[in-house]
Write a structure and sequence with these properties.
Blueprint lengths: L8 E5 L7 H10 L3 E5 L5 H17 L5 E5 L14 E4 L4 E5 L11 E2 L6 H4 L5 E4 L4 E9 L2 E8 L1 E4 L4 E3 L11 H12 L4 E4 L5 H13 L5 E6 L2 H5 L1 H7 L2 E5 H8 L4 H14 L3 E5 L14 H13 L3 E4 L1 H4 L4 H16 L18 H13 L7 E4 L4 H7 L7 E4 L3 H6 L6 E4 L1
Parallel strand pairs: 1-2, 1-16, 2-3, 3-12, 5-6, 12-13, 13-14, 14-15, 15-16, 17-18, 18-19
Antiparallel strand pairs: 4-10, 5-9, 7-8, 7-11, 8-9
Helix pairs in contact: 1-2, 1-12, 5-7, 10-12, 13-14
């Protein structure tokens, strides 16, 4: 059972590079455990087609795969430029104008998707565009216009993101588009829905209510990409089935230098609170073009594994990159090698903890015994998947086989580290 040699799960984003049955099959063979459908790109029809192709491929391989629907969320973006792109020069003035026509951007001004932005920013704030490549300083605000000075210039093209350095923009986490996409995702019977830019557990509870109203059974993944989310992290973790360390927007808001320490903290906190955790963004970025990863990328993936992440995620690498199969193979190899190290297997059971649930107590006791006896594997009979999740929170080198009669449970446990579903 070669795929059971790796405990950390691999999530691959589907896109143009992974849209034919042969490539999808090859990616699953190379080690993909879950697929991610990004609702920021692609129509619901295309997304539904990709899900069907992936599930058909998994069925032929006699495997279960998980499906994650990733909602776009309220990402604030510039609108479009007349020429498609401009060059902003250092020291120039530039205006973000809520009244600017959709396609009328030029070297002096551009519109934005969030019309309230002028009310949400103050003089001397720093706005970061295109994942931080462009830096603007707010000099003044008049009615619907934010007048800025360009600190770091460069090319700026259509629909690039806008972040406020330090966080604090007050857009709601679920847009109208997200609510429609959430309904579509439930129709497609996805296993998890990822909520973008939640600020607090209230955003997760709102999504849960909408899922319930639509008759869905899927779990919720909270994407941690706002500075405020870190301040409310325990409540967000408790409200979710999983969290995603979404390092792109998070890095823009809190600074790239803060991300590694925050990532370690989030992984640890999720495990302590019996929640699954995904590490994402730019993990194998250079392999969008190159056939092999950099040393830094290998270290990045390995460190997430050593810290105890349940899953590592590929974005553009598999969605639009040149080497979708090679990147999965490379990532899988790095995970397997990292898991051989002692840190990846050390387990810490807090003896004086009070258990909230009977199955949590049983799971912990079983793992305590298994880690101290000559045991080859652990088999758990599970209805909801929670027993196998509790077991997977305690690090060990043992495979945990989750036997369930419910297909949606078998698909959901594909996310948990070291857990393998069996019908």
């Amino acid at each position: 059972m070669s795929m059971h040699n790796r405990r950390t799960k691999i999530i691959a984003t589907m896109g143009p590079a992974t849209s034919d049955p042969e490539t999808i099959s090859a990616c699953l063979n190379a080690g993909v455990d879950l697929i991610r459908m990004n609702f920021s790109h692609g129509t619901p029809e295309l997304i539904q087609r990709s899900i069907k192709l992936a599930r058909d491929a998994a069925k032929k391989l006699n495997r279960e795969i998980g499906v994650i629907a990733d909602l776009q969320g309220p990402k604030i973006r510039v609108t479009k430029f007349k020429e498609g792109q401009i060059i902003l020069k250092d020291g120039a003035t530039f205006c973000l104008n809520a009244n600017c026509e959709e396609n009328a951007g030029d070297e002096t001004q551009v519109g934005m998707t969030y019309k309230q932005l002028p009310q949400d920013v103050n003089e001397n704030d720093t706005l970061l565009l295109d994942d931080g490549l462009i830096e603007l300083k707010v000099e003044s605000i008049t009615d619907k216009k934010i007048h800025c000075r360009v600190i770091n210039g460069g090319p700026l093209s259509n629909n690039k993101g806008i972040n406020l350095k330090g966080g604090g923009l007050s857009t709601p986490a679920l847009t109208e588009k997200d609510k429609q996409d959430l309904k579509a995702a439930i129709e497609f019977n996805v296993d998890y829905i990822a909520i973008s830019f939640p600020r607090s557990s209230a955003d997760i509870e709102e999504a849960r209510e909408l899922i319930k109203q639509a008759g869905g059974k899927c779990g919720i993944i909270a994407k941690i990409e706002r500075a405020e989310a870190i301040d409310n992290i325990d409540a967000i973790i408790r409200a979710s089935e999983a969290i995603m360390v979404a390092r792109g927007d998070l890095g823009v808001e809190i600074g790239a230098d803060e991300v590694p320490g925050v990532q370690k903290y989030l992984i640890r906190r999720a495990r302590e609170l019996d929640c699954a955790v995904i590490t994402a963004t730019q993990m194998m970025e250079s392999m969008i073009i190159n056939p092999v990863p950099t040393r830094a990328e290998a270290s990045d993936v390995a460190n997430a594994v050593l810290d105890g992440t349940d899953a590592v995620m590929l974005s553009a690498e598999t969605a639009s990159g040149k080497h979708p199969i090679k990147v999965v193979e490379a990532m899988s190899k790095i995970c397997v090698t990292a898991e051989k190290h002692r840190e990846a297997m050390t387990h810490k059971i807090i003896v004086n903890d009070q258990f909230g649930f009977i199955d949590e107590a049983i799971a912990t006791a079983a793992m305590y015994i298994a880690n101290r006896m000559d045991v080859t594997a652990i088999v758990t009979l599970t209805e909801s998947g929670s027993t196998s999740k509790y077991m997977s929170r305690i690090s060990s080198g043992l495979p945990i086989y989750a036997l369930s009669r419910h297909q949606n449970t078998r698909r959901q446990v594909t996310l948990y580290r070291g857990v393998y579903p069996i019908a």
